[in-house]
Specification:
elongated, 12 helices, binds phenylalanine
Length: 354
C-alpha cells in the first residue's frame, strides 16, 4: 500500500495540467481505479485481514483525494498568475484625446421651447413627416383648388404607375398634427408639436427642410386673449426679457379669425434685439381653430373652441443666438457646429435658465 501511495502522490505532484490530473484520478480512485479495485477485494478477505486493510485503504483514498484537490487549486492559481502577467493594464496612462461633439442650436431651442410650454401645461404631440394630402391639406380646410396648396411649394411623393390616388406629401407644416391629435384624443387639449417640415424653397432665409412648432389648445371658452397671453409668456421666457407682441389680421384657411404675430425688437447697426425698441418682427401665424377643422378632427365646434399657432424654430433660434444665415444650419460644417453648438451638459430647464 505504501508503494501505491508513493506512486500516486508522485504522479499528482508531477501533473502538468487539469487533464493530466483527471487521468490520475481515474486511474487511482475512479470506478475501475487501482484503489477502488483493491477495496472491492476486501470482501474476499478474512475478517481479521479486513480489519486492518479496510481503514488503511480508506485512509489512502482520502489522502489521494485531498492531494488531487490541493493540486487542482495550485494549478488554477498558477494559471491565473500566468494570465494576470499577460493582461496587465497601466491605468495611470493619460486618456486618448477625444473630440467633443456639440448640441445643434435647433435641438437646443427645440428643448427650450418644450420646457417653456410644458411649464404652461402643454404636452408634446408628434406626427409623421410623410403625410397624406388629407391631413396636410383637406382636413385643414385647404381644398384641392385652394391657392395655399400651390403657395406651399409642396414636395409630392411618387405613386406607382397606374395608381391615381392623390400622392402623399412631405408635410409642409406641423398643422396636420392638430388633426391627428384631435382624432386620437378629443377635447379638451393643450399640446405643442415640434417637428421637421418641407418646402421646395432655397435662399438665405429658406431651406427645403426646416422646423416648426405647432400649438393647439381646445376648451370651452378659449379666446384670442389667452392666445396672446400664452405667446407673450412664451417669448418673454424664451428671450429672458419682457417681450410685447403685435397681432396683425391675416388669413389661414384653418383659423378664423387669423393673425400674424410680430414681436417687439430694435435694429442697431444691422443686428436685431428682441424685447426693446419700436420695430416689429414677424415670427408666427395663429388664430382661432376653424370650425371645419374641429369637425375634421372629430370635435363638435358648437361645444368646443380653441386657438392654434405655428412658429419657425430655426427662425427663433437665429434671433436668440445671433445666427445670420439659415442655410448654415444644415451644412454640417464642423467649424460652425463648434461655434454655435451647445455643450451636451447645458440641458435647458426653466430653473437652470434658458
Ligand atoms: N401652418 C401655418 C404655416 O405653416 C402656421 C399656422 C399654424 C397658422 C396654426 C395658424 C395656425 O405657415
Amino acid at each position: 500500500m505504501d508503494d501505491l501511495r508513493q506512486k500516486y502522490l508522485d504522479a499528482i505532484a508531477g501533473a502538468g495540467d487539469e487533464a493530466a490530473l483527471e487521468d490520475i484520478r481515474l486511474q487511482a480512485v475512479g470506478k475501475k481505479g487501482e484503489v477502488s479495485l483493491k477495496m472491492r477485494e476486501l470482501g474476499k478477505m478474512t475478517p481479521e485481514e479486513r480489519q486492518t486493510a479496510g481503514p488503511a485503504l480508506n485512509a489512502l483514498k482520502d489522502e489521494i483525494n485531498s492531494a488531487l484537490a490541493a493540486k487542482k487549486t495550485a494549478l488554477a492559481d498558477a494559471a491565473l498568475d500566468e494570465r494576470l502577467k499577460s493582461e496587465w493594464l497601466d491605468v495611470t496612462l493619460p486618456a486618448r484625446d477625444r473630440r467633443q461633439g456639440t448640441i445643434h442650436p435647433v435641438s437646443q431651442v427645440w428643448e427650450e421651447v418644450t420646457a417653456i410650454f410644458a411649464d404652461m401645461g402643454f404636452a408634446v404631440a408628434e406626427g409623421p413627416q410623410i403625410e397624406t394630402d388629407w391631413y396636410n391639406f383637406d382636413a385643414l380646410n385647404i381644398p384641392g383648388h385652394h391657392p395655399a396648396r400651390a403657395e406651399m411649394d409642396t414636395f409630392y411623393m411618387a405613386r406607382a404607375e397606374g395608381d391615381d390616388r392623390p400622392p402623399h406629401v412631405l408635410r409642409t407644416h406641423t398643422s396636420p398634427v392638430q388633426i391627428r391629435h384631435m382624432e386620437a384624443n378629443g377635447a379638451p387639449c393643450r399640446i405643442i408639436a415640434p417637428g421637421r417640415v418641407y418646402r421646395a424653397d432655397y435662399d438665405q432665409t429658406h431651406t427645403p427642410m426646416f422646423h416648426q412648432v405647432e400649438g393647439l389648445a381646445i376648451d370651452k371658452d378659449l379666446s384670442m386673449a389667452q392666445l396672446k397671453w400664452v405667446l407673450e409668456e412664451f417669448f418673454s421666457a424664451y428671450f429672458g426679457t419682457s417681450v410685447k407682441t403685435r397681432f396683425r389680421a391675416s388669413h389661414f384657411p384653418f383659423t378664423e379669425p387669423s393673425a400674424e404675430v410680430d414681436i417687439q425688437c430694435s435694429w442697431e447697426n444691422g443686428s436685431v434685439k428682441v424685447g426693446e425698441g419700436d420695430d416689429w418682427l414677424e415670427v408666427l401665424g395663429s388664430g382661432m381653430v376653424h370650425p371645419k377643422v374641429l369637425r375634421a378632427g372629430g370635435i363638435d365646434p358648437d361645444e368646443w373652441q380653441g386657438f392654434a399657432f405655428g412658429m419657425g424654430i430655426d427662425r427663433i433660434a437665429m434671433l436668440k443666438y445671433g445666427i445670420p444665415d439659415l442655410r448654415a444650419f444644415f451644412d454640417s460644417d464642423l467649424r460652425w457646429l463648434r461655434h454655435y453648438g451647445f455643450s451636451a451638459l447645458s440641458v435647458p430647464t426653466l430653473h437652470g435658465g434658458l
